Amino acid sequence: MPISVILGLQWGDEAKGKVVDLLSQEFDIIVRYQGGANAGHTIYYNNQKIPLHLIPSGIFHPDKTCIIGNGVVVDPYALKDEIEKLKELGINVKERLYISSRAHLILPYHKKRDEERDRTRKIGTTKKGIGPAYQDKSARWGIRAGDIFYPDYLRERLKNNIDNYQELFKEYTEILNFIKPMIKDTVSILVEAEQSGKKILMEGAQGTMLDVDFGTYPYVTSSNPTIGGVFTGTGLSPKFLDKIIGVSKAYTTRVGAGPFPTELEGNMQSYLREEGNEYGATTGRARRCGWLDLTQLKYAADVNGIDGIFLTKMDVLNHLEEIKVGIGYRHNGKIISTFPDAISILNEIVVEYKTLKGWNTNINGIKTFSKLPEQTKDYIKFIQDFINIPVIGISTGPLRGDVIYAD
Ligand code: IMP
Fold this sequence. Notes:
The protein is of the alpha/beta class. It has a domain at about 250-405: Adenylosuccinate Synthetase, Chain A, domain 3. It is about 30% helix and about 20% strand. The chain has twelve helices and 20 strands. The protein has helices at about 15-25, 75-90, 110-120, 130-140, 150-160, 165-180, 185-195, 225-230, 265-275, 295-305, 345, 375-385, and strands at about 5-10, 30, 40-45, 50, 65-70, 75, 95-100, 105, 185, 200-205, 240-250, 250-255, 290, 290-295, 310, 320-330, 335, 350-355, 390-395, 405. Helix 2 packs parallel to helix 6 and helix 3 (about 110-120) packs across helix 4. The protein is globular and about 65 Å long. Inosinic acid (IMP) binds near residues 130, 205 and 222.
């Protein structure tokens, strides 16, 4: 069983990049299966903070192959930028990165459309052209990375999409030529890798609550970060699945508009934002912050069928006397135990909280679970018991070594 998955259980920004970076040592191939340059995975490499948007976080391990699967929408300009930045750090990307020929492209007109539409729709998108690119894909007039191998076909496709296609055909051909050597039939690469016993790690972007089907629609992204996206976004069969690891922060954040039941206001929100440096890696926007919401987390765990949870940014809660966790919702006075399927209900629910004792001490630097303060252990146990899924690790700081695996 060679495939494992790491995916987000909240509204994205769960620090999945760090978990992928840590666990990728055990894998041969790391694959992104959905989303695009709307994602922002921050990795600390040689103590330097490096944001990645498109390239899988496994790229920092020199012996790994990275793949951008067919489910990703690829902005060739953003990708070139990222490849060049990594090259400056001495990381050679071009020989270790494959881009699916079936992946759809984000071209400048998608970004323009995204900006124009969001002015009225007010989802608060990243303006990276994600929605319009997926829309073109479903409408069947999208342009795929592999189209660069067939210039006449590419010209014809552009003609259907834009007015001044002649001029732009030249410009787009130029940028696509930069990534052309990396564009491959990644389905056959992955199938062959699986058959030869290679270990494959699937890296999700965004999170369950931003999933176009299972998230807080319409305040979602346009892809499936949840488990099904792994298979439609890569071409590998669920038959080969081994482990599904869900990543959650020890609290909750969200960027952009839409419901967020446990959102905080005032000082407490600012406290989490500043302690957690909760500013977007892609857009720089201040993230909305709130307590951990176990009803939401359980829903996400169920939808994905996760085997274990990795809790990140535990240290952000270091100096609190008390920590609250959402343990249920009430609507019109009635308890609802599942995550609501309608925005109108979500906007009206009242969250019930349990208050737990904070550990009010620094846990950075602790290396084993048993040495954690009792209150930290209680917090972890409470989450574990509520969701009925084991916590397999926690992160206690931004650096690679700031992590504790469960005993
Ligand atoms: P889009 O993906 O740019 O269309 O944005 C749709 C929604 O998803 C907005 O609320 C964005 O803020 C949110 N979003 C997209 N990518 C991320 C991410 O990587 N982290 C957190 N939120 C994201």
